[in-house]
Amino acid sequence: MNTLCRPLNIPVPLFKEYFNKKKYSTERHQFLDRNEISPEYLNWIESLGLVLDHAEVFFSIPHTYYTIHQDQHTRTDFPKINFIYGGLNSFMNWYKVKPGSPGTMSQTKIDTPYVGYTLREVDLLYSTELKSPSLVQAGVPHNVTILGSPRWCVSTVYTYQDKKLVSWDDMIKILDPYLLKEKQDLV
Fold first, then answer.
1. Quick check: helix, strand or coil at residue 140?
2. Could you tell me the CA-to-CA distances from 82 to 42, 52, 162 in Å, in that order?
3. 186 falls within a domain
4. Phi and psi based region of residue 86 (left: phi greater than 0; alpha: psi -120 to 50; beta: remaining)
5. Where are the alpha helices (DSSP H) in the chain?
6. What is the pLDDT of residues 5-16, one digit of tens each?
7. Cβ contacts of residue 89 below 8 Å, gap of 6+?
8. Domain count of the chain?
9. Which of 41, 35, 25, 139 is nearest to 86 (CA)?
10. 26: domain CATH number?
11. Is the pTM value of this prediction over 0.90?
12. Residue 91 domain-assigned (yes or no)
C-alpha cells in the first residue's frame, strides 16, 4: 500500500460556493478563511470522529523551484488532505533523507514549522500527479513540480476531538470507504 499519497472520493464539497483563486493568488502561503468551508464538509469530517484543525493555501506558479521540506519539526507522520485547483502537469514529490543530513529547521510566513532540505540531502522516493483530493504524507520531505498552469493547493490538517493529531494509519482506516484505487509509481 502506498504510504505517501492516496486519492480520495469525498462525498461533499469543501467550499460553500467555489474556490476563489483570485483571493488566494496574492501570497505563496496563507491560511484559508474558515468561513469559506461548507457546513456539509465540516459535518462529514465530524461524522468521521475528526476535527478540521486548520487549512492552508499554497499558490504555486509553473517553472519555479519549491523547497523540499518536511512539515513540522518533530513529526515524521503528518497526514493531510490536499485539494488541488489548476496545476496542469504538476507533481508532488517525496524524498528520503540521506544519512547525516539534518536539514534546516524554520518557520513559514504563517508561523508553521518545517524542516527544509537541499537536493544533496535527499533521494527521490515517489512522484505523482495529484488529482484532488488526496491524502498525503507531509511528515516526509516533499515538494511540488509545476510544469503547466498555476496551482492552488488547499492543505487541511485534522485532529481527534481531544486535539490529538491523527496518524497516517488511522487516517487510512477512517477514510477507507473513500479511498480510490491506488496509483502506480511514476518514479
1. coil
2. 15, 13, 23
3. no
4. left
5. 39-47, 168-174
6. 999 999 999 999
7. 129, 146, 147, 148, 149
8. 1
9. 25
10. 2.60.120
11. yes
12. yes
